[in-house]
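Query structure, 254 tokens:
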């Protein structure tokens, strides 16, 4: 682990409370396609290390490292990072503790060929200003020709399919229900999770800011990044009217 002092204020409450259960309850089920998509992009170049913003418990970082790629993490949560480091292959992965919407230190500026945020992590920045700063920070971390990739909901799909209370398809078979509430007046939504943990019902709330692809493109443009690819998910399927998510790839001009 590197680069303390660390500002823990960016760490979400679920990370501190549930890091040891995160993989059982919350980890996204798209890991293979995410890893495949990113590994193929890394192969296209430019050469250089990869960085995951919000590396969490290592769901994506560790399989990428196992493929022989040099991949690092940046996360605000020491608890999530401890889980990553405890896994096979995790102890050698460099993870910096910090806020990924803050500017990089001099050693990390221009260092990476590929910076990415997966699992809806970018939208955890719940203001436009924080998202704008994150894109500027990602751009400053990239080498010329480097790419920044993120996944996000399409807001229309979020509104029509994603609100209300639904059981969560948990990787560990746990009892988790999620209630999503949209707050269109502030372009945010909250997810309230009710989790049965050892016979005890626990609650955690996560806040997100949703955005249209067009708004994201403008924020990226302000950071000097231009859109080079947009798909309907990590599988690489085309974006269509029935897509629920998009994966967007931006490039810093060479
Ligand atoms: C939903 S988890 C996803 C982890 C991983 N990307 C995955 O897909 O499995 C989001 C991670 O981002 C981290 N995080 C959220 N906001 C952050 C911020 N502003 N700066 C750094 N890390 C942040 C959390 O601590 C958590 O580990």
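Result returned for the query:
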């Amino acid at each position: 682990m590197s680069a303390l002092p660390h500002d823990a204020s960016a760490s979400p409450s679920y990370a501190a409370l549930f890091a040891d259960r995160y993989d059982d309850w919350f980890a996204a089920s798209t890991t293979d396609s995410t890893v495949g998509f990113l590994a193929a992009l890394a192969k296209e170049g430019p050469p250089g290390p990869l960085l995951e913003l919000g590396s969490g418990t290592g769901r994506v970082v560790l399989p990428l490292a196992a493929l022989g790629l040099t991949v690092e993490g940046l996360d605000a949560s020491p608890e999530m990072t401890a889980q990553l480091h405890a896994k096979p292959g995790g102890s050698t992965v460099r993870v910096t503790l910090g806020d990924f919407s803050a500017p990089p230190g001099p050693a990390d500026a221009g260092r990476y060929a590929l910076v990415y945020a997966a699992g809806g992590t970018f939208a955890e920045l719940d203001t436009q200003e924080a998202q704008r700063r994150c894109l500027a920070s990602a751009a400053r971390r990239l080498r010329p020709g480097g790419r920044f990739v993120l996944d996000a909901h399409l807001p229309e799909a979020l509104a029509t399919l994603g609100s209300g209370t639904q059981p969560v398809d948990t990787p560990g078979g746990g009892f988790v229900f999620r209630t999503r509430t949209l707050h269109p007046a502030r372009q945010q939504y909250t997810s309230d999770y009710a989790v049965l943990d050892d016979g005890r019902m626990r609650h955690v709330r996560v806040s997100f800011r949703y955005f249209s692809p067009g708004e994201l493109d403008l924020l990226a443009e302000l950071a000097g990044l231009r859109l080079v690819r947009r798909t309907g998910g990590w599988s690489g399927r085309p974006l269509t009217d029935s897509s629920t998510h998009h994966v967007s790839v931006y490039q810093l001009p060479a």
